[in-house]
Amino acid sequence: MALTPLVYWAQRHEEIYLRVELTDAQNIDVHVDENVLHFSAQGHGAKGQNEYKFSLEFLLPVKPQVSYKSTQRQVNITVHKIQRGWWEKLTVQERKPVFLAPDFDHGFEGKTFLGFSWIFVNMTVRLFIIGRDSLYDTFHTISDVMFFCQILASVEVLNAAFGVVKTGVIPTLIQMVGRNFILFIIFGSLEEMHHKPVVFFVFYLWSAIEIFRYPFYMLGCFNTEWKTLTWLRYTVWMPLYPLGVLAEAVAVIQSIPIFDESKLFSIPLTKVIGTSVSFSYFLYIYLVLMFLGLFINFHHLYKQRKRRFRTKKRKAN
Ligand SMILES: CCCCCCCCCCCCC/C=C/C(=O)SCCNC(=O)CCNC(=O)[C@H](O)C(C)(C)COP(=O)(O)OP(=O)(O)OC[C@H]1O[C@@H](n2cnc3c(N)ncnc32)[C@H](O)[C@@H]1OP(=O)(O)O
């Protein structure tokens, strides 16, 4: 007897993603006929090894060509919308089919937002309660969550590279490389940096922008906009980005004598010469790259801001 598998769904403006919970699926047949997706396969699902089937009639027109990929754990199906836009639900039926559920795996923005909010609130509260002393132990109290958030945020580069979101790969890459370099190399590898107040300024400036940016993306996923939030997302970076890069530059400069002394990451030259090239030479080059990166991303964000507010004005007319 054919059973129904569990199906999770998510959407982007141009695509629908279905994740069918079937392990080792075989004899897979997926096709769209008159806007109805038909799926059948043999595999191991919620009711053991069996034949599983389902059909879904989409809310709005989709292209008849579907693509799918079967992994050991699931079958991933991608369907392309004919018209770009956000659907309020997936199917035409009034009631959602029982086997269908939203796929929250696509919502990394939510987790990253929670992480950065925790950082921002925690640092603010500690500053009010402990005062200046809180500047000296930011790394010990915050770094684990910051590592987690930054690793999650690195997904943004993949999203940009695979065209999941409409954003440039280069600005996203600059942002990711820039932050991870400071977090993992400058702060992460040098214990001497952990108690410096600069850690507080870097973490505070990073998280201050993200508490506006991620909710803005999250609302975008639901095709919703809150004007004040949009304004904040496209304005707050103006003072924060240069200040953030300045704080990062201070961290790099403070780390140079430590790298020189410890010889960490220095490149040993041959025994005949008997010396090594200090990592600090790379850091001097990096300082120049930082301001180049700042210029590229400042220009990018300025263009995004103009595009966003120009489109809004045009829509309003
Ligand atoms: C090549 C390597 C070289 C290495 C050199 C290294 C040098 C490094 C130097 C630079 C160091 C910088 C380190 C960083 C410091 C700081 O962060 S300081 C603190 C302040 N920081 C900021 O203000 C920057 C914040 N960051 C950003 O804004 C982004 O990361 C960005 C990449 C710089 C720009 O974002 P972008 O996505 O391009 O712009 P948006 O307008 O926001 O988005 C475009 C559209 O895409 C949609 N979208 C994007 N992401 C998502 C998502 N996750 N989910 C859903 N949708 C998303 C977004 O909604 C937009 O769509 P539309 O609304 O339809 O336009």
Automatic annotation (TrEMBL):
Signal peptide: none annotated. GO terms for molecular function: very-long-chain (3R)-3-hydroxyacyl-CoA dehydratase activity. It is found in: Endoplasmic reticulum membrane. One of its GO terms (cellular component) is endoplasmic reticulum membrane. The chain crosses the membrane at residues 113-130, 142-162, 169-187, 199-219, 240-259, 279-302. It comes from Oreochromis niloticus. Its EC number is 4.2.1.134. It is an enzyme of class 4 (lyase). Catalyzes the third of the four reactions of the long-chain fatty acids elongation cycle. This endoplasmic reticulum-bound enzymatic process, allows the addition of two carbons to the chain of long- and very long-chain fatty acids/VLCFAs per cycle. This enzyme catalyzes the dehydration of the 3-hydroxyacyl-CoA intermediate into trans-2,3-enoyl-CoA, within each cycle of fatty acid elongation. Thereby, it participates to the production of VLCFAs of different chain lengths that are involved in multiple biological processes as precursors of membrane lipids and lipid mediators. Catalyzes the third of the four reactions of the long-chain fatty acids elongation cycle. This endoplasmic reticulum-bound enzymatic process, allows the addition of two carbons to the chain of long- and very long-chain fatty acids/VLCFAs per cycle. This enzyme catalyzes the dehydration of the 3-hydroxyacyl-CoA intermediate into trans-2,3-enoyl-CoA, within each cycle of fatty acid elongation. Thereby, it participates in the production of VLCFAs of different chain lengths that are involved in multiple biological processes as precursors of membrane lipids and lipid mediators. This is Very-long-chain (3R)-3-hydroxyacyl-CoA dehydratase. It holds the Pfam family PTPLA. Keywords: Coiled coil, Endoplasmic reticulum, Fatty acid biosynthesis, Fatty acid metabolism, Lipid biosynthesis, Lipid metabolism, Lyase, Membrane, Transmembrane, Transmembrane helix. It is a multi-pass membrane protein. Residues 2-91 form the CS domain. Pathway: Lipid metabolism; fatty acid biosynthesis. It catalyses: a very-long-chain (3R)-3-hydroxyacyl-CoA = a very-long-chain (2E)-enoyl-CoA + H2O; (3R)-hydroxyhexadecanoyl-CoA = (2E)-hexadecenoyl-CoA + H2O.
